[in-house]
Specification:
The structure is a homodimer of 538-residue chains. Chain A has 16 helices and twelve strands. Chain A is α/β, with parallel strands linked by helices and 538 residues long. In chain A, helix 5 packs antiparallel against helix 13. In chain A, helix 11 links the parallel strand 5 and strand 6. Chain A has a seven-stranded mixed beta sheet, with helices on both faces. Chains A and B meet through helix 2, helix 3, helix 4, helix 5 and helix 6 of A and helix 2, helix 3, helix 4, helix 5 and helix 6 of B.
């Protein structure tokens, strides 16, 4: 196995900076050198299951792992770039020989490794401590190990027969999460789904079935006009669910929020009353625990009171905020969540689990099964030799499902509940630090002036030219153009990434979110200074 | 980096058979020995992004990779076991110290590696050449490399901003697949979704929106009673879609098939006529290209004629059969697919791509976008610096999506279209070999006597006691019990795995499917001999 010694240098950190294919001549020469066993003349058909394919398989995968390890180490360095931006047309033209085209004839293994390096090179380092662009960020090493194992096991979360360990892990995780929400042992059920939007869709589906079980067989035709309630600041997945499920977006009633982005219970109450007065049939309320933009927590107990009074299904979209339940310091912000009929909770957001990992948790046992089961005979044979209640695939609307549970399970082993709590606390401390910094600087302005409840901080950068302008439509118009211009320059520079958006009548503002434990205070400082550097002349 | 030399033995093939923790005393000693750098006293908090965490990170991931490489090599050996079966209660009790419980306090890295080994040990080797249990099987090494890279890149398929390379790869793949279907350059759109069931759901959603665009805003309330058509042998995801979308399972009209499992066009025609006569509104027909159990191909051209005549959306569920399009020898079986309005095609089935990888392809450009877009401002800002038509996340009903495209892209580079074709041919040759073997043996009986069109072969095993019985309810009753008993013994023995099910009035029969290129004729022989060995005394 000489190739290992030969590959050793690749593990050095800045070797990847020496991009393999600086020009087309070098194409196919991974890192500019030839490899001992000559992957240049080996093809995928030489890998396992080919007879004698073991050595080639190990060599190829080991080479790939070396590339990945170098990438990981580089991603975590604050001074390295977050991205190397190119426009779509540039990437499509085949930068430095990186061709996206799909061939008729096979390429050799060395070329594949070059393709892998190029793919990483032109991508975005979401694990970088200065990537603040999405609710999901960071690269948890144990979670990553979990993903590597999951893809090696390559099975389907559907029957105990083919996923014995993973199905039991799913059960253990769901029970743990239901317990943390505060449901009793007789309560609590759930399923992992492909993302928070799908989990929220499950919640509306379940609420409708719970109220009108005949909808599964008869459809919406005989039903009265159903309406559901969610706040102006809630995630657009509630709209999407209404569109998909045949309820219709117009039948969503958006409830007003306070200036902080929290749903106003009095507004919910009056919206329900006015819907009823019009002959509409309310059946579902979505409360958000951690809104996407402001990071606001709706007042769950007040909303639960209203839902109880009107007999409505209360869903809590804690996709973003669920992680706070693991912090004794912050879990009070979700008080009342135990009164929900269902909860969406995405460990791939605040808990730092690699994408994707989202759970829909349901208080009432058995409802998922009765809502979704179709008893396909080729999968769910009743005459198996084991306890078929573990064939839980029929609870989902997906048939087979990707195994999203193992990485979470392994991370839980690695950190313990306490470790997750510490991670959440660290992210929220960063948010508070950013909030204080912004308050103290004249060139930044908060979108709303109160301490962050979650890790979202929303703010404007004010270039010199705007600082002395008095508020009004002209200032707003000019302010609106600032964030996109800074973002464009930021992406060209590639040192950091943060998102922006308008909201209601508010001009484009930046939203910084923290979910990456790698981020430190100096990275927060860097972000503000970088924005100021990029925008001062605007 | 001494640990590498020290770890070398782990790469030997049967080292994993020496299970690390034979008893509780050995818990925490990975493979019964201590590791140089002592992962026993290192925790996840010592890994990156911890300061000086680089070495520990490389060591931990390298150890994990060694475990995975050993597992992969072992999985591919025909003589090794496919599974080591335990009942749910046994696994939950903590076999040999393997505890599924989630701790409050962290566990050390060595313990995590032991947990990883145990997870693999008690799982099912779906890449094993004698695993015939699911439509998805095999372990493609290049696909696996693709998954390892994907999870390391850990990003979300939603905006070009955070997934530039992967979104372009999705576009390239979708264009390629649309071209292979036979759509012109002006036609063809699509999105990768989390599995065939979701892809089929997309098709019904699109068909409904195409006919009644107001459903997105108004819901199903004002609509007439919609009905859809699919064959008795089609996948249950069509039912699931009707339940989820608010159409209702009762509004699915199941069309009769011939004895081979193909939809009878005359039956479709008369079903449509009779639905119309009742005042129902047909809008969608699902034709299957490769049914789940029999592997049958519906006559697509005849069905397309009927759909054209009645103005109905024609969907082709080619989740299982789509791969045959890459074989010049077999693609004729899908003749007429180019006339479909939409197609489901799962590369994770017949093309051997690791789970999950499924595409919904749509003939009409722009329809996915208009059906599903909600223009969330925090994601799809119109004032970005790049061509925002590449922010294709709004075409999906999922918001963020797992990156399922890279592994397929990399496999396509590795094999070329030709390599996929050869792989499909090999699997279908195995099926034909099995079919011929069964015909020649008195102890096996085919469920229907015609050469397999896909790689499905359905058959009964007849123990001595049944061979001389005349057909009738008593023989059926006894035959029905045979397959479950053999399957139970098969799983206890762990040498192979194949599925069984009843269908209509047919007693439980085995369904063998081939999608694993690792499978050779001796494995097919083994399956039959093993079934006979396990069942001869029944």
């Amino acid at each position: 196995m000489d190739y290992r010694e030969e590959l050793e240098p690749v593990l050095g950190d800045d070797k990847l900076a020496r991009k393999p294919a600086e020009d087309n001549e070098n194409r196919g020469k991974y890192n500019g050198r030839r490899i001992a066993n000559d992957l240049n003349s080996i093809y995928s058909t030489d890998l396992l299951p080919a007879r004698d394919g073991e050595e080639a398989t190990k060599q190829f995968l080991q080479e790939l792992v070396n590339i990945l390890l170098a990438y990981i180490c580089k991603s975590m360095k604050p001074g390295s770039k977050v991205l190397d931006f190119h426009h779509p047309h540039q990437l499509k033209e085949g930068l430095e020989g990186f061709s996206l085209d799909l061939p008729d004839r096979p390429e050799n293994l060395e070329q594949l490794l070059v393709d892998c390096q190029d793919t990483l090179k032109y991508g975005v380092k979401t694990g970088h401590p200065r990537f603040f662009n999405q609710l999901s960020s960071g690269l948890d090493i144990v979670g990553l190990a979990g993903e590597w194992l999951t893809s090696t096991a390559n099975t389907n979360l559907i029957t105990y027969e083919i996923s014995p360990v993973f199905l039991l892990m799913e059960e253990v995780l769901l029970q743990k999460m239901c317990g943390i929400i505060g449901w009793s042992e007789e309560e609590g059920d759930g399923v992992f789904s492909p993302g928070g939007t799908m989990s929220n869709l499950y919640s509306v589906l379940l609420a409708r079935f719970h109220r009108f079980p005949e909808v599964k067989t008869k459809g919406m035709n005989g039903l009265p006009r159903l309406v559901l309630f969610t706040s102006e600041h809630s995630h657009y997945s509630v709209k999407s669910s209404a569109a998909v499920l045949g309820i219709g977006i117009d039948n969503i009633i958006l409830v007003k929020c306070d200036e902080r982005g929290k749903m106003l219970p009095a507004e919910l109450e009056s919206s329900i009353a006015s819907a009823k007065a019009k002959g509409l049939v309310p059946f579902y309320v979505n409360a958000t625990a951690g809104t996407t933009v402001y990071g606001a927590f709706d007042p769950l107990n007040s909303i639960a009171d209203i839902c109880a009074r009107h007999g409505l299904w209360m869903h809590v979209d804690a996709a973003w905020g669920g992680g706070l339940l693991l912090s004794s310091r912050h879990r009070g912000k979700l008080q009342g969540i135990e009164r929900a009929s269902s909860v969406t909770w995405n460990p791939h957001k605040m808990m730092g689990v690699p994408l994707q990992c989202s759970a829909i948790l349901v208080k009432k046992k058995g409802l998922l099964q009765s809502c979704n089961q179709l008893n396909a005979e080729y999968l769910f044979q009743p005459d198996k030799q084991y306890d078929v209640s573990y064939d839980t695939g029929d609870k989902s609307i997906q048939c087979g499902r990707h195994v999203d549970v193992f990485k979470l399970w392994l991370m839980w082993k690695a950190k313990g509940s306490e470790g997750f709590g510490a991670q959440v606390n660290h992210c929220l401390e960063n948010a508070e630090y950013l909030y204080c910094k912004i308050k103290s600087r004249p060139d930044f302005e908060l979108v709303f002036n109160s301490k962050p409840e979650h890790s979202n901080v929303c703010f404007w950068y004010l270039p010199h030219s705007l600082r002395s302008m008095s508020p009004g439509p002209e200032r707003d118009r000019r302010l609106h153009a600032v964030a996109p211009k800074i973002k464009a320059r930021m992406m060209e520079g590639g040192q950091t990434m943060v998102g922006y958006q308008p909201l209601g009548d508010k001009a484009n503002f930046f939203r910084c979110v923290f979910s990456n434990p790698a981020t430190q205070r100096e990275d927060v400082d860097f972000l503000l200074n970088e924005i100021a550097r990029l925008g001062h002349d605007l």
